[in-house]
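queue> pop job 88
queue> type: inverse folding (structure -> sequence)
queue> payload:
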């Protein structure tokens, strides 16, 4: 078949061997999957293990070492050459293992992020991963979905698709399922086709798949799309810059040390190797890679806490978040709506509104609930509705499939004996205007079937006409289209008084935390000529209010408390009524204030004015997606690091603008997930806070890593530099320098990446992004501890050398190595004493330290190693001295932490 769009539908289905009613069979799908392959675009795949290894071996410093080894061979110093190569290999293996793990973690995250699609197969609707789609599959389109494959439309209801990825046209195109006779239409004009990668902005549709994977239109231009480079994170960039600066400084120092040595008459070969070793040791070229690995592994840990990271920078930004702007429904609440109250205008009732409570399921219904007008209200709510009624056998109660707000209405009607499906048989839907967050209402038109079932023929107000239209939505939005009110059996004009009753009742119900929907109807003699909103949504008669409860999530309450303790402000942003929002916000502890800013108020504010007052409120209500963007911008201008949740198509800009855009894994649209940095697999606010905590731990651990590495480097440079200024020989042999940096340092540094969360991580404000990574005493720590390491080890070495002890260099070497191990143990915690945190609370670290001590002992006592590393065996007393002096750094850093705790206590 040449052109799918201009062929007749029967021929299309025939060619594809598909049946719209039953879809493909499992057997057909399996065969086609083999024939056509998975529905994915070929990507530049993850790095292969060989490539990772190659990158490890071609890092500049490794090449320098390989040259040094080659030079040693040239000078017939085979032992040195072998030792250098061994260290190169060890180092490459360590690097390889780490990066391979990180790469695998990222690939797993990517696999999880592929969207799901509803298909009809074997006669049943099921949800599958879009990767498994094959030509001939029947799939369903919904608002906010990304079209998973190319296909011909079988059915389209108000379907609009934005095709800018393919056509560049940003306005959505109206699609339909009709036949097109022209063959050579451009992509944008093929209105009965949908294409992979485009976005459904409105309506719904059913499609038969014509092409998948690289055969799709998107596949043809896939190469182009993939030209986008992975962006590096702020921390990675800072580390790269820092690495460069420190690298230059280190090389200058190395040059000075080498020159000093040569001036003192040391031989060229020794000074060449010393220079190379020192350069390798002191240039922190591995910093950006270490950060990437820490972030990738962090992302894996976050996944375990049900937060799926889509963009790596989010991992570090999460640790810095100061505002979490969250939707209410489903994120802070359970999204298990239950209708609890109906409110109907009635002249005789107090406040002119009669409330009817709907007791919990299983309890007896009050008689007044079975009055025609109450049943009329529930009927309207159930018909102007896309949810389906079902029954939960296990719990023996009514249930639903679809949106919880709508589900609650269908269930409430069913409890009075009116099943949605039955209602639809005598009032079938013939037209609709869907719900959107901007309009905040939904309208349907139904045909009245004459021959209706006796059992269902209640005395409805709309019984006389051929058609009836129902509208339900936010009360304010419904009042906009009402001309009259149904009061005690007749339609009365909507005057100010009556409007006030309704608004008061609405506020009363909202104030107790209920979501309130207004419901209205309009009798129609015939179908409106056009499907225009203005034509349909006018002259309605207001019927009543329906209040539903959506209980706050228990875990959200705890998470809010953690947020506030840790200097993160939770902000509620909701489409719901201000009073509903406030009631729930207060229950959750988000705010004690009464202040709520509404979407209407937001519209009137200039960006400057909003920035001034954005921090005054913790609750934003009746907000539509475009307002969210304004709120994010204002918070950012105030210097906040903002996380923002969203689920709809129109939330995408706000999600992109936020520092961390968060989409809902269960209820979110594909578009919102695509725009987000992180997806909550359980739609739960508490998960955001858990991810923020992980983010802080990762940020802390990266800082600890930096603290450790830089202190070591500084200490070592100082030893050599100061040593060269004295009369003593070069303090450390080249291989000893390499050993300390690549082996003694390597293992504990790895273990720092898995350092568990500190108890205080969520008991302090987030780090100040403006201050930079060396803030809060990090720089000072590096200087004084590095100096201490140098003084202790060099001091011991100098003393022993003066005493003519030939073990002086081995003692210096060992003390320096042990000092580092002491240091790494002490900095595992920021302020808490190691003994309180528990020496074994990071078992890999304990193992790394024990192993490194054993390796150090091997280097001193095994003759073969002694030869290579130029060490001499120490006596027990000498070893004891090394251990005692090597622990000085540990005790001093613990003392520093004690002072920090003391000053904290004083501040409190
Ligand atoms: P949140 O922003 O807290 O998650 P939400 O996303 O449910 O809340 P919207 O979906 O924007 O908020 O809903 C806004 C208002 O529109 C609701 O308060 C309700 O009055 C009304 N509404 C919600 N769902 C429907 C629906 N299916 N049909 C008609 N009106 C609805």
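queue> result:
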């Amino acid at each position: 078949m040449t052109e799918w769009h201009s062929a007749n539908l029967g021929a299309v289905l025939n060619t594809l061997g598909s049946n719209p009613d039953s879809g493909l069979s499992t057997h057909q799908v399996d065969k086609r999957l083999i024939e056509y392959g998975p529905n994915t675009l070929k990507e530049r795949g993850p790095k292969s293990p060989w490539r990772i290894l190659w990158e490890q071996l071609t890092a500049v410093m490794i090449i320098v070492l390989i040259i040094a080894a080659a030079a040693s061979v040239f000078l017939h110093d085979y032992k040195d050459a072998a030792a250098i190569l061994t260290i190169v290999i060890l180092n490459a293996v360590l690097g390889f293992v780490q990066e391979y793990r990180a790469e695998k973690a990222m690939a797993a995250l990517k696999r999880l992020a592929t969207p799901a699609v509803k298909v009809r197969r074997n006669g049943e609707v099921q949800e599958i991963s879009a990767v498994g789609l094959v030509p001939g599959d029947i799939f369903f389109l919904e608002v906010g979905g990304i079209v998973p494959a190319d296909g011909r439309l079988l059915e389209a209801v108000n379907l609009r698709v934005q095709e800018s990825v393919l056509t560049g046209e940003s306005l959505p195109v109206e699609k339909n399922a009709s036949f097109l006779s022209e063959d050579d239409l451009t992509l944008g004009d093929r209105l009965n086709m949908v294409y992979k990668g485009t976005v459904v902005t409105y309506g719904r549709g059913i499609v038969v798949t014509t092409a998948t994977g690289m055969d799709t239109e998107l596949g043809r231009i896939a190469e182009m799309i993939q030209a986008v480079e992975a962006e590096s994170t702020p921390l990675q960039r800072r580390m790269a810059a820092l690495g460069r600066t420190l690298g230059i400084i280190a090389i200058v120092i190395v040059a000075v040390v080498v020159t000093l040595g040569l001036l003192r008459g040391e031989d060229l070969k020794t000074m060449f190797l010393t220079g190379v070793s020192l350069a390798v040791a002191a240039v922190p070229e591995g910093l950006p890679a270490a950060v990437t690995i820490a972030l990738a592994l962090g992302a894996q840990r976050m996944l375990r806490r049900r937060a799926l990271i889509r963009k790596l920078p989010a991992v570090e930004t999460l640790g810095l978040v100061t505002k979490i702007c969250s939707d209410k429904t489903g994120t802070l609440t359970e999204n298990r709506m239950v209708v609890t109250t109906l409110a109907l205008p009635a002249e005789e009732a107090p406040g002119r509104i009669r409330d009817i409570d709907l007791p919990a399921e299983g309890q007896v219904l009050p008689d007044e609930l079975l009055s025609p007008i109450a049943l009329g209200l529930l009927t309207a709510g159930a018909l102007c509705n896309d949810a389906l009624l079902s029954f939960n056998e296990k719990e023996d109660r009514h249930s639903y499939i679809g949106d919880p707000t709508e589900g609650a209405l269908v269930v409430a009607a069913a409890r009075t004996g009116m099943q949605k499906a039955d209602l639809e048989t005598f009032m079938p839907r013939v037209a609709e205007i869907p719900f959107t967050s901007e309009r905040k209402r939904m309208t349907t038109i139904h045909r009245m079937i004459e021959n209706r079932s006796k059992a269902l023929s209640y005395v409805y107000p709309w019984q006389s006409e051929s058609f009836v239209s129902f509208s339900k939505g936010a009360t304010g939005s419904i009042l906009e289209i009402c001309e009259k009110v149904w009061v005690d059996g007749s339609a009365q004009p909507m005057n100010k008084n009556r409007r006030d009753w309704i608004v008061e009742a609405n506020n009363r119900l909202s104030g107790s935390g209920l979501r309130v929907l207004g419901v209205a109807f309009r009798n129609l003699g015939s179908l409106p000529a056009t499907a225009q909103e203005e034509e349909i949504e006018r002259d309605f008669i207001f019927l009543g209010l329906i209040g539903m409860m959506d209980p706050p999530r228990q875990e959200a309450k705890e998470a809010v408390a953690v947020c506030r303790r840790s200097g993160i402000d939770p902000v509620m942003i909701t489409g719901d009524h201000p009073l509903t929002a406030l009631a729930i916000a207060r229950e959750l502890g988000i705010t004690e204030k009464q202040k709520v800013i509404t979407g209407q108020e937001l519209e009137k504010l200039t960006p400057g004015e909003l920035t001034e007052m954005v921090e005054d409120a913790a609750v934003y209500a009746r907000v539509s997606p475009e307002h969210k963007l304004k709120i994010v911008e204002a918070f950012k201008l105030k210097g906040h690091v903002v996380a923002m949740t969203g689920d709809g198509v129109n939330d995408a800009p706000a999600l992109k603008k936020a520092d961390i855009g968060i989409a809902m894994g269960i209820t979110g649209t594909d578009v919102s997930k695509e725009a987000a940095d992180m997806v909550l697999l359980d739609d739960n606010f508490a998960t955001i806070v858990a991810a923020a905590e992980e983010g802080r731990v990762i940020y802390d651990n990266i800082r600890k890593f930096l603290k450790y590495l830089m202190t070591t480097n500084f200490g070592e440079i100082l030893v050599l530099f100061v040593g060269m200024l004295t009369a003593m020989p070069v303090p450390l042999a080249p291989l000893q320098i390499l050993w300390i940096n690549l082996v003694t340092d390597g293992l504990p540094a790895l273990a720092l990446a898995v350092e568990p969360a500190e108890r205080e991580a969520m008991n302090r404000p987030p780090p100040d992004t403006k201050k930079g990574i060396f803030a809060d005493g990090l720089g000072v720590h590096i200087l004084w501890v590095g100096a201490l390491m140098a003084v202790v080890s060099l001091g011991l070495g100098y003393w022993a050398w003066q005493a003519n002890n030939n073990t002086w260099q081995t003692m210096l070497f060992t003390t320096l190595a042990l000092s580092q191990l002491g240091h790494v143990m002490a900095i595992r915690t920021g302020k808490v004493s190691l003994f309180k945190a528990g020496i074994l609370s990071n078992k890999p670290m304990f193992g790394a330290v024990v192993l490194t001590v054993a390796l150090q002992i091997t280097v001193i006592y095994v003759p073969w190693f002694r030869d290579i590393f130029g060490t001499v065996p120490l006596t027990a007393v000498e070893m004891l001295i090394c251990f005692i002096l090597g622990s000085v750094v540990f005790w001093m850093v613990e003392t520093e932490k004690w002072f920090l705790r003391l000053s904290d206590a004083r501040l409190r």
